[in-house]
Amino acid sequence: MAENNLEVCENCGRQIGKLEKSMIWEEHVVCRECRDHLVYTLQPDAARPTYLNTQDTGDADPHPPGLTKRDVQSAVFHAILDLMFLLFLIVVAIAIISVFAAPTR
Prior knowledge:
Blueprint: E1 23-25, E2 28-30, H1 32-42, E3 51-52, E4 67-68, H2 69-101
Antiparallel strand pairs: 1-2, 3-4
């Protein structure tokens, strides 16, 4: 019979399965659910990211996948810069075309 080397969560007492990854919280072995709960409850509200485009999947993960507001703001900023550069190129192209297309007398 195989030896049982499974770790036990020091917070909830649940046995951490063979395929699960044990986590460390302040030098204590905990399961992922307890670690996420501890991080979420002890982290100040201002430091928690606000996620967009997330769906309620029923997952216990307090940090669902998705874009943060900062990601969206950065994408919008870069899109505006790209549009300004494109407008600049169009103006330069029109100026060059008008110089070469000008009728000669």
